Fold Holliday junction branch migration complex subunit RuvA.
Amino acid sequence: MIAFVSGRVAAVGLTSAVLEVGGVGLELLCTPGTLATLRTGAAATLPTSMVVREDSLTLFGFLDDDEKSIFELLQTASGVGPKLAQAMLAVLSPDDLRRAVGSEDVKTLTRVPGIGQKGAQRIILELKDRLGSPLGGVRTAAAAPAQEAWRDQVTQGLVGLGWSAKDAAGAVEAVAPEAGAAPDVAALLRAALRVLSKA
């Protein structure tokens, strides 16, 4: 198994990044929040989780080891595959997930596209004693992206999670006043998802 990947960022796309390691470009599927911390040409080290299927080997990349461990733990719940686990981490931070599951907050979990009432209840039932309590650490991100770049990243993240381009654009406009001088893409994405979940 590949525990982490360290190398130069060759490309950052809508849902993945390519890191050049020893002359080989490895594609890692990442949440929009993780992608927002990467800069093309810069060095990066990302914890990774490899998902092996009959027809594919997929590497998922994470901001830190905590996010990686939560990703792997989420998949132990019935009905939660890697794509859904990644969607959950795109919408909620590891500590938000711990709080939601620990307090049996079905409403928060159903903000994730693909999770309904019954799915949320099942996740709570199966993971309540295993996720632990919130760590309370402050998550640090690399330098914020250019002022307007966040709009594209949030829009692409929402579309990647299953929302239509029109809905995504409306949500981006709704959260634009929160952007400020140094936009936090992960926070803005979560805010946009809250807007869409209320619509």
User: Anything to note?
Assistant: The first strand starts at residue 4 and ends at 12. The radius of gyration is 16 Å. The chain has a mean pLDDT of 86.
